[in-house]
Fold this protein.
Amino acid sequence: MSEERRQRSVDPATLEMLARASAEGINTVFDRAEKMKPCPIGAEGSCCKNCAMGPCRVPAPRGKEETTEEKKARVGLCGATAETIAARNFCRMIAAGSAAHSDHGRRIVEAFRIMAEGKAKDFTVRDEQKLLKLALDMGVEIGSRSNQEIALDIAHRCEAEFGKQEGELLFIKNAPLKRQEIWRKLGVVPRGIDREVVELMHRTHMGVDQDYRNIMRQGVRAALADGWGGSMIATELQDCLFGTPSPVLSEINLGVLREDMVNIIIHGHEPTLAEMLAEVSAEEEITAYARSKGAKGVNLAGMCCTANEVLMRHGVPIAGNFLQQELAIITGAVEAMVVDVQCIMQGLQEVAGCFHTRLITTDSRAKITGAMHIPFDEQKARECAIAIVKTAIDNFPNRRGGVHIPQAKQPVVAGFSHETINYLLGGLFRASYRPLNDNIINGRIRGVAGVVGCNNARTPHDSAHVTLIKELIKNDVLVLSTGCGAMAAAKAGLMVPEAAKEFCGGGLAEVCEAVGIPPVLHMGACVDNSRILIAATAMVKDGGLGDDISELPAAGAAPEWMSEKAIAIGQYFVASGVFTVFGATWPTLGSREFTEYLFRDMEEMYGARWAFEPDPVKAARLMIEHIDRRRKALGIDKARERILYDMAMRRQLEG
């Protein structure tokens, strides 16, 4: 295998399957990335195609300082400056990302409502405690009412959040009070989820908003509508409907596939179908049907963020993250890949055509030419799931071309919801983040980092995630992770308690070993980044680390981002007070002024800013330096061990 090919990924299973793809002449995303170079003008945000007079290209001069005259001449046909073009492009990414996450939230609300109405007989409230807490938070009457009645009121209130025209989103009050006041002062509190996305698209239309600061103000508002609106609604209702995650042991990587079983991969982002597939695939009737076709049973495995959902709640193993979706099919062992929405490559169908694999779409919003479509209906959830599983089982005898499953797999402990962390730190009756805060104050834990996001074929697969995370935990920074970044960490062996001793600094290792947790906590899918916001808010409320998220020794990163959702996530973290570093590429470098606004001026407004650093070690250093500055501002920059006072010392204090 060539050095060039070896550098495509740091994951052994991925490299093994890329070698097989090459030998079989199968084209993958890795090959396409080598053949098609990114457009340098588009990559830096200097291309405007928002009207038919364009596309207008206004690239920044390279290798020299831009003169005033050059800057004045660098405009589109309508006169739009590089700053306006970059801001519009950036904010359209925020709008698309917020729309994707929020439409996910809308679909969950719909499923929650029809469950409450008694129309979805296969679903019920799995976490009554969270349902009642949510009812209290939302002002829904409890009394002697049934869970279904309470859930229906919650569903109606959540549905209203999408179409509201005035006021404030309900979940904004979950943020620290000081943060709420910052948002109100700056005029960025979201009114309604859909309104903010629509208004942002309007403002970025040709000839509308032409002040990059004003465009970005609405960009912040739309991003907050995602993080503290659509995404938070999705996470909260999914927990009520499917159960709040708690720690579970499972396995990850392509080695979880089984040669002697029917392999079904569930891929996408919405957990309703995945939940039902997890239930149905383990039933004896289905196992017997699989045996009748020559298999020992059905092996369900996850891919991408749906994988995180069913891992946390059912222990379903994960076959891989975003860039491994084609490679799973190339094993020759996958009878069906079942997809819904988001992060699904159209190239899957071409790869599936080289094998016996059935690519099955299930959502009317996301069809793929050539794929089989079996629509999923929440009101007939079990019936739909059985039809899909039986389609896969019927395909088992059709395997061709040989099966090649890599042996690489790792154990993973997942399921660290906000509630679970609260319980692990304080127990049932004293649940609290106080022990975490105390260990940050005394210096055993330096700070907390959220490392999230996608894979990007423009950078070695998983490498930046793993390198950055190892650098952080080596320096006593506890890491919270979601999405494909969490999977990268898990495949590298960082999501088991034993990793603390091998990879962590002494302080973090001591805390992890005492509590029995990994140094990298799996917190769910990309929509579950709202769990990190709630955890940060809990740290503020438990005291000792300032009055706002921006005062915490905390930072965020998405080292291999590629999705517009990542930009929306990053922006709502920055607007919430979290210093956030992105790697791989940055989409505003064509405008120095707008980039400086994001990288410098935002800190004056929100107490946090963006940063771009493609080198993961340097990115980790930026995060650690920020954490150290926050520690110094809090007066906890020097480690302070607890002292046991004897009676003489106590009398001296009293005197």
